[in-house]
Design goal:
By secondary structure, the chain is mostly beta strands. 14% of the residues lie in helices and 53% in strands. Among the domains are: 83 residues, no CATH class; 150 residues, no CATH class; 52 residues, no CATH class. β28 and β29 form a beta hairpin.
């Protein structure tokens, strides 16, 4: 037996020796670098990735299996882009423990490790293929690592779905001995950057850590953490965490010893700091014992500071029943001249085993002192009761708040902590903001900076709400809100305010509001308002300085890019000054690219308005519109001051059309009946297009005074304004038009008026003086009123007949009838020149070329001479009674201003024409000779005596010595009448 054992041992020893010799020979003759290409090829075939091995591979087999690798990198799947790399790796493990399924590893050295991890939008990652296993998982083996030493490494993680990116760089880690279920000493430092949330921090951490997943035992001792940088919305952050924590969550056993958190940083112009201290907390199977836990917060700003403290007093008891003398806290704030102080306290009890906690009555008070408050100060009180069941994820609370004269009460219940479902009911009797806010704030005007980016309300995705809010009355400045009732509901996709019912001053508002698509919020609304009195909200600010003109600076409505809305508003009645509107209906839609009001309808005074308006290209807005009005009396909206201001001063009025340079608009307006400047039109159709400083109104048409008009208006405001106006009026009753337009009944008739003019200038006078173009007039069956040429001729004839002792016919008609009147005007430098006026009247003819003159539009004056000729006529104005004057030309001079024109006849020319006619031959005798002598330049006084049979004109002309004149006899009434007639006839 002994020999058998002996030979057996020899045999085993020989086998081991042979194995060692073979292993030694293999280790001395095997070179792994000879297989680089095979390894690279295998990775390419199996994983479709490119493996790059820059350095030599060093291997050892006894007494430890070891590897010493140089720089190695591996590409992304099916790509040459680098996925991960390492500058060097060194690892060695003992051979014999492997036979016992134990992994004993020397210190692992890693330098310059890099990895770029990507999570794609579909949820897959760029290393999924590396996790696929060709073989089943092997049995877990125990491991024992002497230590890990990682230097100068980094890893980047990108989430393409959210856009988040995280980067750990300059990563260094040094550990002590590592084994399962055993504590390990760790020291690490690295830089952390991220964009969601924004982080740029340096982290230093060390301590002794234990993580045993099997027993769910976690422990950290001697924790020493220091984090600096920008994070949590702050800058220059400095966070230190120290202490010991031992936790067995499944057994509800926790031990906290000397835990301290100190943090500080800068937030929006303030410096904030937090200090949390938990000296000793023990939670065991049968015991709960805790020293007081304190939390303090300090905020310092240039205009004041805030301090808050909270203390959770010591706790005693067991996990099933803990008691605490309570939670206490205090608050103090100083901001400018305002100081705020407050305190609160409540008992505290709970059941850690069932995770149920109660704050039965949290009572507090608040005191505010501020010279700007109505009474200089105000006080308030509150109480709160709360019950929390952590396992069931339920919190129920009730509260009451009283401050100044405001009382608010309600209950808030929360279900689920991961996605809280909050139900509430809030009630307030009244809220007097005039007593709660400083005097300067109650009516202050606030300025807000607009942004063209929509507010991201994505946080509302995690909000579930269902509740009601009721407020008896709210006072703010001079405004009053009463009877506010609204239901509020949020389901993670939409926030809705339903059943809204509130009275704002005298306006009752009902309807609903909603917010959805939280990343780029869509606001929806449906509101009904019974009445609105705008007069009470619009206050005239006398003495206010006018804002400077924005000139040609483009109008920027980029803030509307942030608006995404869809809703409607209906208003029963609206009052603004003397204007009253009813049945207002507005539908608004905005999507960040365009805003439209379609339809927009209302009854404004006697006008029914239907329109749609649109705005797009907000940074340089483009306006579109379509307006339809059944009837409009525009004069009722033009004050007398506006209508007559141009007549109050002769000073020139500048024209500022710079607004056209920044206006981009197009649309049309149709008005059934329009009264403007007392001119009445129907079927008005106006098209407008404005862009780049050029405005075109076309069509520009309407029906008026039994006729029609059609034309075009163009304004070029790119430099000195240039205006082009073309208008064609057909079949117009000119008389009623002039009466309504300028209150002047000087002309009547039916016909056409054509105007084609251009002008340029920066003021009203400049525009008048630069007028150029043409105009044409063609009227029929009308009259020139204010000048009665036929009547004047009859008057002359009657005076001549008077010399023949005939009776004078009486006709006081002050108009000149015509059957046809035409004229064309050439306009230059603001002066309209005419020399082709033609007119046909019952007793008159005015041939082209017999008249000429100017109308000075710039100076508003007239200088015109017309020479109508008397013709035979059997009927009409004058009739055959004027046949004796046939062929005589009657010069008519028109002068004066537009406002006060003057008409006069050239009686010297009339006299010459009479002398050349046969009419005076019929006078005969001494009277006829006297008239002819007068016309030829004789003495007027002597001729008058001759005409009155007082003296022979031939005697006076002979120059003989005359006998002393006898005393004149008193003139008879007949002689007085003759003398008057002669003086009027010959103008002396």
């Amino acid at each position: 037996m002994n020999k058998l054992i002996k030979y057996a041992l020899y045999g085993i020893g020989g086998i081991v020796l042979l194995a060692l010799l073979v292993a030694g020979y293999f280790a001395t003759t095997f070179n792994p670098n000879d297989y680089k290409d095979d390894i690279i090829k295998l990775v390419k075939e199996k994983k479709d990735r490119t493996l790059t091995i820059d350095g030599d591979i060093g291997l050892s087999f006894w007494p430890k299996i070891g590897a010493d690798l140089g720089k190695i990198s591996i590409s992304e799947h099916k790509s040459n882009t680098e996925f991960a790399s390492v500058n060097s790796v060194k690892v060695a493990l003992a051979v014999l423990p492997l036979l016992k399924k134990q992994l004993v590893v020397d210190t692992v050295y890693v330098d310059g490790a890099k990895a770029n991890i990507i999570k794609y939008k579909d949820g897959s990652t760029n290393f999924d293929d590396l996790l696929s296993k060709d073989e089943e998982e092997s049995e877990t083996i125990k491991f024992n690592v002497d230590g890990v030493n990682i230097t100068n490494s980094s890893v980047t993680y990108t989430d393409e779905a959210s856009g988040a990116k995280y980067n750990v760089s300059a990563f260094n880690l040094k550990s002590g001995h590592i084994a399962l279920a055993e504590p390990v000493d760790l020291e690490t430092d690295f830089k952390l950057t991220a964009n969601q949330p924004a982080i740029a921090a340096d982290v230093v951490l060390k301590g002794n850590f234990l993580a045993d997943p099997e027993t769910k035992h976690y422990q950290v001792k001697g924790l020493d953490t220091h984090i600096t940088g920008d994070m949590l919305g702050g800058t220059d952050m400095d966070i230190k965490i120290n202490g010991d924590v031992d936790a067995k969550p499944e057994q509800l056993e926790f031990l906290v010893d000397g835990l301290q958190l100190v943090a500080s940083g800068k937030f929006d112009g303030s410096t904030q700091s937090v200090n949390v201290s938990a000296p000793k907390i023990t939670i065991a199977k049968d015991e709960v014992d805790s020293k007081k836990v304190t939390i303090s917060f300090v905020q310092e700003k240039a205009d004041g500071n805030l301090k808050a403290n909270m203390v959770l007093a010591d706790m005693k008891g067991s996990p099933k029943a803990i008691q605490s003398s309570g939670i206490t806290g205090d608050l103090s704030m100083v901001q400018g001249k305002r100081t705020v102080t407050g305190t609160f306290a409540s008992p505290f009890s709970g059941n850690i085993e069932n995770m149920i906690f109660d704050i039965p009555k949290l009572v507090g008070k608040l005191d505010v002192k501020d010279p700007s408050l109505p009474n200089g100060s105000m006080s308030g009180s509150f109480n709160l009761g709360a019950h929390a069941d952590v396992k069931k994820e339920l919190v129920n609370s009730q509260f009451n708040l009283a401050i100044a004269e405001t009382k608010l009460a309600g209950d808030v219940n929360v279900a689920s902590f991961k996605t809280p479902n909050i139900k509430f009911n809030l009630n307030a009797d009244k809220l007097d903001l005039n007593k709660l806010l400083p005097k300067s704030s109650a009516a202050a005007k606030t300025e807000t900076k607009s942004s063209n980016k929509s507010t991201d309300l994505s946080a509302l995705k995690n909000l579930l709400l269902d509740g009601k809010l009721s407020v008896g009355s709210i006072l703010y400045d001079k405004y009053r809100v009463s009877g506010l009732n609204v239901g509020i509901k949020a389901n993670g996709q939409k926030l809705t305010l339903s059943g809204l019912n509130v009275k704002v001053d005298n306006s009752q508002i009902k309807g609903s509001l909603g917010i959805s698509q939280f990343a780029k919020p869509l606001y929806t609304f449906n509101l009904d308002v019974d009445q609105v009195d705008l007069d009470q909200y619009i206050v005239a600010e006398t003495g206010a300085k006018k804002e400077a003109s924005t000139g040609s600076k483009p109008l920027d409505l980029s803030a509307l890019k942030a608006l995404n809305a869809n809703g409607s508003i209906r208003v029963g009645n609206l009052k603004y000054g003397k204007t009253k509107a009813s049945n207002i209906n507005i539908n608004l839609k905005a999507d960040g690219e365009k805003l439209s009001l379609n339809p927009l309808s209302a009854k404004v005074d006697d006008s029914q308005i239907n329109a749609n308006l649109g705005i797009s290209q907000f940074s340089n807005p483009a306006f579109t519109f379509a307006l339809n009005i059944d009837q409009l009396d525009a004069d009722r909206y033009i004050t007398k001051g506006e209508a007559t201001s141009s007549t109050k001063s002769s000073a020139d009025t500048p024209i500022d059309l710079s607004a056209l340079k920044k206006l981009n608009a197009s649309g049309e307006a149709k008005i059934g009946k329009l009264k403007l400047a007392n001119v009445k039109t129907q079927n008005v159709n106006v098209g407008l297009k404005v862009n780049g400083g050029i405005a075109t109104v076309s069509p520009f048409s309407a029906n008026l005074y039994q006729g029609s008009m059609n034309g075009l208006l163009k304004v070029d405001a790119r430099a000195t304004p240039v205006i082009t106006f073309q208008q064609n009026m057909k079949n117009i009753f000119i008389g009623p038009l002039m009466v309504d337009a300028i209150n002047n009944d000087m002309l009547s008739g039916t016909g056409t008026v054509n105007v084609d003019v251009t002008t340029q200038g920066a003021s009203v006078n400049a525009l008048k003086k630069a007028l150029a173009g043409s105009a044409a007039l063609n009227l029929a069956d009308g009259a020139l009123k204010g000048v009665d040429i036929a009547g004047s001729i009859r008057d002359i004839k009657s005076k001549v007949n008077f010399l023949k002792t005939k009776d004078a016919s009486a006709d006081k008609t002050k108009k000149t009838d015509f059957s046809e009147l035409t004229a064309t005007f050439s306009i230059k430098n603001g002066v309209a020149h005419n020399e082709d006026l033609a007119m046909k009247a019952p007793v008159l003819r005015l041939a082209k070329g017999d008249s000429r003159g100017d109308i000075d539009i710039a100076n508003e004056t007239i200088n015109y001479l017309a020479k109508p000729t008397i013709v035979k006529s059997l009927k009409g104005q004058g009739g055959a009674d004027l046949d004796d004057l046939s062929g005589i030309s009657i010069p008519v001079k028109i002068t004066g201003t537009f406002a006060s024109p003057k008409y006069g006849m050239d009686f010297a020319a009339i006299g010459t024409a009479l002398a050349q006619s046969k009419l005076l031959d019929k006078v005969g005798g001494e009277k006829g000779a006297a008239v002819k002598e007068l016309i030829n330049g004789g003495d007027k006084a002597e001729a008058l005596k001759g005409l009155l049979n007082k003296k022979k004109p031939t005697d006076a002309a002979a120059g003989t010595e005359a006998a002393p004149a006898p005393a004149e006899e008193p003139k008879s009434l007949k002689d007085q009448a003759k003398e008057k007639a002669l003086k009027e006839l010959f103008k002396f």
